[in-house]
Amino acid sequence: MRLTIPEQEIMTPGHLACQGCGGALAMRYALKALGKNTILTIPACCWSVIDGPFPYSAVNVPLFHMAFEAAASTASGIRAAMEIKGKEDVNVVAWAGDGGTFDIGIQALSGAAERNDNIIYICYDNEAYMNTGIQRSSATPYGAWTTTTPVKHYKREPKKNMVEIMAAHKIPYVATASIAYAEDFVKKLKKAKEIKGTKFFHIIAPCPPGWKTSPEITIKLAKLAVQTCIFPIYEIENGIKYKINFKPREKLPVKEYLKLQGRFRHLTEKEIGEIQQMVDRNWELLLKKEEESKNL
Amino acid sequence: MRKVIMGNHALSYGAMLSRAEVIAAYPITPQTEVVELLSEMCANGILKAKFIKVESEHSAMAACVGASAAGARTFTATSSQGLALMHEVLHWAVGARLPVVMGNINRAFAPPWSIWTEQNDSIAQRDTGWIQIYASSNQEVLDSVIQAYKVAEKVLLPAMIVLDAFVLSHTSEVVDVPEQEKVDAYLPPYEPRYKLDPDDPHAFGGLTKPDWYYELRYQIEQAMEEAKNVIEETGKEFEERFGRYYGMVEEYKTEDAELILVASSTIASTARVVVDMLREEGKKVGLLRIRVLRPFPKEKVAMILKNAKKVAVIDRNISFGMSGAFYAETKAALYNEKDKPPIWGYIAGLGGRDVRIEDIKGIIENTYKEDNPKKDIYWIGVKL
Amino acid sequence: MEEKEIRFKSVKDMPPMAMSLGTMRINKTGTWRNIKPVIDYDKCIKCMFCWKFCPDASVDIKDELPVINYDYCKGCGICAAECPAQAIEMVKEE
To answer: Does A54 sit within 8 Å of C19, measured CB to CB?
Structure first.
């Protein structure tokens, strides 16, 4: 038996996540990578509920529940307090969903990144406002059904490229991750916690009720997202140096990923073709950026 | 040491002497001097604090909340639009029972744009659970910051020190800046019982059902009640150490007064002058300055006012659709008294309109003239 | 942190703010499931993927073998779906 990620469990079972929740697994991995010397701040999102009601908690590290927009600014405040108290080695982590990162929380996040505050910001992305019942966010991908983008008006806007936005702040470290590639996530998070400055993670976290999928394929989806290059896993250092961590030997067609999800069931062949083109273009661009990075 | 300083700088000195550890602030006229001087103090090493240059007031209060939850003494300052933007997080500081201290420069709300003084911004935050102290001199501003930390950290409620834009914030007065050692003796370091600490992990603010949320609200109100005594006690201790007393209210020649003015902030300062002038003429007038609006000094107000023949409240604010705020609350404090005088409510000085000696004399004259108030709002100086 | 259920009788028992005093271990989410994973140890290759991929940390490791913690297992089926040896079967809960 050889374990590829740290054995110690910090998150307890008994939490309130749905069966097959990608966000729960993401937290489990994150805490393994970060260790107990960690303070979390969590804005309104699924984890506001998953952690459990007063007077219980599932994460076993100090956690400050906070208002929706304020994950990053609260984390900045916690870090300032830790510094003034001389506790330099604590991890200060903002743990937010896509809504609290891409939309309502983007200002505070941009502010913290511009100041290069020494925090780790992890966005677990289930691609909609799931906690309030599956409404669209700017992280919802093109073509998806949500309650506010019903089938006749499915989401026409492409997914906001939050990773590029964060890279444009020239923060020391930006990375994407997938819960299907736990070793990669853990390794990158361990690397990030040694860096001073703002570190941003974007981890894809499939959501069975929101994506209209069966709970047991959560990992399969998180893997397909990467293998189809819909959600590539890569790092950007200092906003300019790109490194793709996983290049699929065989780039799978997006259809393999889309067909498993009820939220894409209404898509026609033509529309799937459009999505394939978008994905191909983005992947080509990413490969070029990595190539250019080699000259830096 | 005596210095000539403006109200804004009095806030900065107060925060510095209180050894604030984390300051997160966003600029807004007329608060900017507060944070500019604090920045300078940090840069010069006089104040050992982390200064987070946040990108909005919402983030300013959020950063203070985070820092306070992590065990640091925090400070911020704002005004009108900024205070309004922080509103959601003001509630958070209260619910999380964090002793954040803030300076608010009372400034009129937009639209239209105004930078002049009016109390609506802080009045609109009455219900949040923040302790509110309305200062009428720069000395009081500085001293109140120090006292506020002591009160806030004891009862676990945040506190704001409120002062008039320009009339106080940018007016220089002689202030006795206390020595650091004396302040340290009065205000020890902040040692919270519960904080974000990996050695003792807790989740703060988790979902709470109706079966226990109610009791948490009850606790906050109990803290407000306790604050009344704590303000008096810390005020007495402040007097012993520094020679100046600050309680919930300030009585000026009220013992034998037949007409008592109720006012706050700088209008109260002007009113004090008018009281002296009228006393010279043999008129028995007095002034009750309400210093602390929250917790409202119901018992003191009732006790001081119930034996007057007439009461005139001057509000530099208005709760639209009702009346001035101090007026409504003063009336409420007296309602259950067997003997209660008729109370007139005057609104003056909105949007920074000057409230002059003549205006206050006019208020007193009108109150003397009428047997009972004809209406809930008398608009002073409105150009009809 | 305590692992037993916390009962307040009055406001006097409560902390000043909503603050956790115990862990969610008191919440036995095993009651959620209607199918449960059963490991066939003859087929198990001890890769620990089931342990790795469980969102509920409900696979324990005992003597280098994965053991489902039925107190908490929600029956999501991820372990069965990801097992490279097909050693886990989801069976109906009685």
So the answer is: yes
